[in-house]
Amino acid sequence: MRIVLVGPPGAGKGTQAHLLAKTLSIPHISTGDLFRANISQGTPLGLEAKAYMDAGKLVPDEITIGMAKDRMTQPDAAKGFLLDGFPRNLGQAKALDEILADAGIALDGVLDLEVPEEEVVKRIAGRRLCRNNGSHVFHVDYNPPAQDGVCDECGGELYQRTDDTEEAVRVRLEEYHSKTEPIIGYYADQGLLVTIPALGRVSEVTERAIEALRR
Ligand code: AMP
């Protein structure tokens, strides 16, 4: 299966992508995680992306598309993948179409996680990520780890993202509405869009997503 996950920041894309990818046995490809890995390794790509990310802005397409393509063409992604956070604008969606067409493959579905804006802000403020694995995501109230500051899955240290500040979140929401939302219509026109409400327990949302994708 080849799936794209869309939704505003704080919709739970990372959490759901991690669980869905496990259930469907396909790699979870998150451009945000790839950028964060590059930043923590101090690569030139990471250095270039960091200022945009910290400000809540989208990283330019020239950097993002090449990085996403490299990851998507790794051997483990040959049988399918779940894209989390890519594409994030129409230019990237069209670039993805070309990458897929060149490989003679196509998307099976685009899953849109719908969450009210006030919920998004609450979710982001309490979000904590694992330093070892960005897919291990917790929330101080909604999904707290058994031990404060420690990842349940691997024992890694939990931290708050530098772009989870109020100001950066405001910019990220603006970027989402102006640049990312148009891809929802783009995929709806192609008959690929599946929208589900992303409220409720994490496991309920995962079940809803699986059911919607199988339809
Ligand atoms: P995420 O972890 O998906 O919330 O992404 C965190 C940040 O990484 C975003 O706010 C952007 O600055 C950057 N980023 C991730 N994916 C993309 C993308 N497809 N295009 C541009 N910037 C991206």
What are the main properties of this structure?
9 helices; three-stranded antiparallel β-sheet; five-stranded parallel β-sheet; Rossmann fold; binds adenosine monophosphate; alpha/beta
As laid out across the biggest beta sheet, the strand order is 2-3-1-4-8
Tell me the distance between the termini. Answer: 13 Å
Ligands bound to this protein structure: adenosine monophosphate
CATH superfamily: P-loop containing nucleotide triphosphate hydrolases
Q: What is the N-to-C succession of helices and strands?
A: EHEHHHEHEHEEEHHEH
Strand % is 5-15%
Instruction: Give the number of domains.
Output: 1
> What structural category arises from helix and sheet content?
alpha/beta
Radius of gyration: 16 Å
CATH architecture: 3-Layer(aba) Sandwich
Total number of strands: 8
Helicity, as a percent range: 40-55%
Low-confidence stretches: none
Provide a quick synopsis of the model.
With 215 residues, this protein is α/β, with parallel strands linked by helices.
Q: What this model shows, in words?
A:
By secondary structure, the protein is α/β, with parallel strands linked by helices. The protein has nine helices and eight strands. It is globular, with a radius of gyration of 16 Å. The mean pLDDT is about 95. The chain binds adenosine monophosphate. The site of adenosine monophosphate (AMP) has 18 residues, from helix 2 and helix 3.
